[in-house]
Amino acid sequence: MTTPALKPFSLKLLSLNEALFSVKAFTAAMAALYIAFSMGLPRPFWAMATAYIVSGPLSGAVRSKAVFRVVGTALGCAGAIALVPALADSPEVLTLALGLWVAVCLFISLLDRTPRSYLFMLAGYTIGLIGFPAVTDPSTIFDTGLARVEEILIGILCATVVHSVIFPQSVGPALLGRLDATLRDAERWTREALSRERAPEGAANAQERQKLARDITELRVMATHLPYDTSEVRWMTRAVRAMQDRMAYLLPLTAGIEDRLDALRGQLPAEVSALLADLDRWVGGDDEDVGADRLRAEIARLSPAIGADAGWKEATLLNLLTRLRSLVDIHQDCRDLRAHIRDGKSSLPERLDPLTRRRSRDVFHLDAGMALWSGFAALLGIAVVCAFWIGTGWSSGSTAAMMTAVFCCFFASLDDPAPGIRLFLVFTLLSVPLAAFYLLVVLPSFDSFPMLVLGLAPTFLTLGVFIARPATMGKAMALLMGVVGSLSLLDLGSGDFASFLNSNVAQVVGIATALLVTQLCRSVGAAWSARRLLRAGWSEIAAMTAARSGIPVGSFENRMLDRVGLLSSRLALAGPQQDLAAADAVNDLRVGLNLAELQRARRALGGPAAPHVARLLGAVGQHFRGLSSRRLGTPPAEVLPMMDAALSNLSAEPRSAERDRAVIALAGLRRALFPHLTFTAPESSSESLREPVTA
């Protein structure tokens, strides 16, 4: 894989928010450094580095990150204090135990896709920062661990206070702004779907779906900081999460409505067309006379009764109208929840309160296999460095081991961590001349803390501006950490050229080892990850067809929606791939939703329909098991007669809510699996299938 060209720092004009962030971060760092010096802690510059690491533009995120960092540091410190004395007599076993701790913590962190994962990742590499230097001097482990916790607590406290008191930027308003923008996008897409003159399905439409999925996933992650926020919105956390859950259903629901309108184009009754126009105006807020209750009543009146002679046209029309009813409910719920958040009321209306309690915790796609492999890669890198360190007796080998542990963890959530590690390595090398200038020339001439602050201000205030810019944050942080790491040599009284050179060589060796190990056994391409995501969805759909218990509401939907968002960026990076071009994760989501409905409904069905539905589920499950096993192909032809038989037998059953629910799901499943099938001419009284045609 080729190395991406390094782009210079952007020279765009300084914004007020960037300047404010830089000043606040520098103020917090200097306060932490002063307190650490005053307390006589062994490595005050670690407190300074912590203040920069914890700093962020949103005060709520700073506080949540601070909590996770405190707990993670304490956990890593406790692990080091437990392992080092017990294994002090065997350096080889001790380094292996420390590496295993890092690998296990990294594995756990990758199974949590929220900011909480930072806690476990930090617990992993903290044991490296404390434990590896103690391998050659285990008697100091307790003092080192205690000092490390104190220094980090000082940095966290200073960053939290400064960002919370000085012009704080709350998570709440930013989250609500994103929430409103996402809702507007969903409303616009809904109106396009309802419009009879809407654009045909294409790349632009698919990109809109993927963007909506990404936005909803990002809102979920952002909302995890809300309980730590200072704005009034933090009291509305339940309502915000309920609104996100309702918006998540808009993606498959609107895609399904588009599909049903395509199937029934030219065959819609005039009253249904009028209903679509009314619904379009209601979603856009263009007609105050059209209300949700009126729309629901009209939908109920127009819904066809499924009798013994009903065919796919009637079933598809019933499916469309049921989806339109759900669309009205979801948009009305989102409006009511948004109004509740805006009013800041302490209790929800009785109708909306259950929405905030029906919260699925299992909302993110998790890849245990890749998490395990990432942990193994970290262990391998640490083992390689430690073997060289112990074998050669290198005095700075512990620094190399520390850097390997840190960088194997930092970028492990990426498909290919190598470019990120490589960029950090390059900018760490670029920091060496600046660090040497400070350590060997500037700082030795300063004899007071105010002069030290004045000497550091030009460089760190400038870097703080670039840290505030997402495009340059990684590069600027690498430069800043490289300088701070070298300044920490002053803490140890070893600020001479030989120590400086040896320390920087160890840092480079550690980062380079992490890079090489990552390239050899951990880097994967975007196309590979996209296929893995698709197979995970297909495997879950196959499992749903064989489920014996009820499928939890919300769990599958949220995970598949998350996969749609994850796929969007990977498909863009993968480039033209024949198998990926044909993949449609949104359609897979619709298949799964209809299967879940069919599974829930069939448990209440009796009579001859039940075995036909069971056979259909088995055939669909076999198809998706084949897809997940890399046997790509279209659904087998025998599925169509099974669907016909299931519909015929369902239509013959006595009318009930569960019977209609099964018919609606069956019609949706047919359209999702065979989107090119259509009906005979509308004037024909009998329903039969035609050969597939091009959409």
From TrEMBL:
Q: Where are the transmembrane segments?
A: 21-39, 45-62, 67-87, 93-111, 118-136, 152-176, 368-390, 421-443, 449-469
Q: Where in the cell is it found?
A: Cell membrane
Work out whether the entry's keyword set contains Ligase: no
Entry annotated with the keyword Transport: yes
Q: Which GO terms describe its molecular function?
A: transmembrane transporter activity
How does the entry describe its membrane topology?
Multi-pass membrane protein
Cellular component (GO) terms are: plasma membrane
Q: Which UniProt keywords apply?
A: Cell membrane, Membrane, Transmembrane, Transmembrane helix, Transport
Q: Name the predominant localization.
A: membrane
The lineage's top-level taxon is Bacteria
**What Pfam families does UniProt report for this protein, alphabetically?**
FUSC
- Give the protein's recorded name: Putative membrane protein YccC
Q: Which organism is it from?
A: Azospirillum brasilense
